[in-house]
Amino acid sequence: MFAAWFVGLGPGILATILSLISAIYFVIPPVFQLRVATREEAAGGIVFLGVSTFISILNEALRRSRARSEQRLQELTIETSRRSRAEQEVAESKRQAERARDLFQTTLASIGDAVIATDAEGRVTFLNTVAQQLTGWSRADALGEPISEVFVIRNERTGAAVESPVDKVFRGGVVVGLANHTILITKDGRDTPIEDSAAPIRDENRQVLGAVLVFRDVTERRRSEEAMARSEERLKLALDAGQIGVWDWDIGANRIEWSDRIYEIHGVERGVFRGDVEAIAQLIHPEDRERVREATEAALRRGALYDLDYRIVRPSGELVWVSSTARVFQNENGQPARMLGAINDVTARKHAEADMRQQWLAFDTALSNTPDFNYLFTLDGRFSYVNRARLRMLQKTYEEVVGKNFWDLNYPPELAERFLRQIQQVIETKESIRDQAPFTGPNGVTRQYEYIFVPVLSGEGQVTAVAGTTHDITDQKMIEDALRKSEERLTLALEAGGGVGTWDYDIPSDRLHCNARFAQLFSVDPERAAAGAPISEFTNSIHQEDRAQVAEKLQRAIQTGGEYAAEYRVVPQTGRVHWLSGRGRAHLDDAGKPTRFLGVVIDITERKQAEEELTRSNERLTRANRELEEFAYVASHDLQEPLRMVNIYTQIILQDLGGDPAKLGQYAGFVQQGVTRMEALIHDLLTFSRAVHTEELPIGTADLAESFREALSVLRNRIEDSGCVITAEFLPQVSGDVSQMAHVFQNLLSNALKYRKQETPPRIHIAARRNGSDWIISVRDNGIGFQPQYAERIFGLFKRLHKDEYPGTGLGLAICKRIVERYGGRIWAEGTPGVGATFHFSLPDEEGQKGRG
User: Which of 18, 59, 643, 750 falls between 20 and 30 A from 75, CA-CA?
Assistant: First the structure.
């Protein structure tokens, strides 16, 4: 039984048989013999053998059952151990996955671009802070929503819906980007111009699990582009309005760039004309080439302003005068590198100067799937993550960059130290840093970048890493630089034009932006005008008589989007009237509504004054010619009469030399009278000629009292002989000349003494009264008077009402009229036959004359 329990069934049966044999031999009589004496003993042996065998079989079964139980227990123990290890591995994998997910989400949350991730059904599974700001959706509201609800885009120009790039990714399984002019509609309805790209998210079997969408706000870049376009538009309008051409000479390369206007001025075609310095010199008039060359060399040596008028000869042979102004720009070594200038055709001005013998001014008018680099740093400044865009720029693999610092990647030492210092600052302060720096890539190209370093914080608020994003701002810098150069060109063109005012009127907001010259002309504060002011602040300065026509032309241009051109007067705060010439164009949007109105204005006061002076000169010339004809006719008639008398009586004397002395004396007296008559006539003619045709009148302050005394002194004898009584009131000071005014008094007094009544002593009274800014002087006598219908005639040349009764030449009153009119006054007369006559003349006082000037 024990053998079967411990060893097995076979050994148990063998032990039973051996036990039975031992019992028969040693115990059951007869002992020591292998035989059974009785039948009962044989049966007992059989029973013993059967029971023992059964027990052995039973023990074998129990032993096998125990062995199986022990084996199962061992297997269970091994399985329990294996499961425990598997659960530990699963927990560790879960923790690592959660850490990787948190790190990935923190990285995406810290980059400068907006990022949205979706599952395979297009539902939002993640969006970073920038995406929340741009879409207006919070993370809690957006998770699980269809991407078409959160990311709504339209065409900026047409307003039509644009297919989501995520749908294109799911359909084609490739990276896609947006077309230009796409706007994002936020949750609250605002629109933001963006650019984006989307890419599929795949598993290890290349199955699409979802999509990632990366986009950014391009509002600032768009504004820069629009600002540059407006500046270029203002420059072109200013140059077109002023007919100004602009040229730019690269001195080192000996290359000159011309605007279209310069080609027109020189009469050559773009693409046909060579355009270098030597070719341009051949177009300059041979007599002016040396002068232009010397002026150019002097400007290059001094770096000063170049300003020159000279002639050019077009290929057609036509001679053209041009005015060129330029400025030299030096490089960092102080050597001339560039010469920028403006040129305009001044042929008309030169011709006018030659014709008029005075200078006429010519006025000229003138600016990974995001391209950004995203990366992570460890606390000791080593890269722990770099996206594909950064790798492409560095031309390295991920393995070649991760774990390396800036020195390992051959960054310039000063840049490496700067970056590491800023990373340490982020770690210490837990605050982000934004900065800009140039960087030269392996291809040798240097570009300008803007970057931001952001701390990555653990749940306990400790910095675990530093995330960074770098954005290429080279294009933006180029736009800004181009804008600056455009503004320089605009400023130079406007300066070359002699002070051109420019404006840019935003019609919907009623804000007019202008430069300082425009603001000065309209008496508006320059800083306020630059920031934008209502147009009414400017139109208030327009002369009252011109406002209606200016408003009409402005309104017509705004309504039609057409050209605007007007000449009008403004009255600034100084009170001095200016003439302006304005040109511009209104712009309409796609709906035909006016949006902007740009233009230029030039002060043409001097030109208007010159035109007015030319008109006055022509009028004077016409009047002088008319008077000359009248003068020649009347003078020839009045001179012939005494000459005829002299001739007749001279012939009689010659024929009768031996005749009666008394008659000869009488004849000689007649000759003397003729000669005296001619002398008086010639004297008055000379006086009249000086009064009418003297180029420069003496203008100052004329004391009429002094002029009156001078006239009395000349006429003293006649006054005493006639017994005339002359009285005078206060006589003022006027603008004029004492001597010229003395001539006026002398002729008026002489006229009153001549045409007196024989039986009545003459009386003359002089009075003065103010009429506005003028003084009216009256000379009243008690002489013979005249009929009212002759009040105008008596001021004509050689006009006398009483030729036979009273001597005279008929020039005295004509001389008075010319003198008074030349000093800005007028003269008239009133008379009554038998009662007397009163002569009035008006002159501006001293202040009034200044005001009129």
Answer: 59
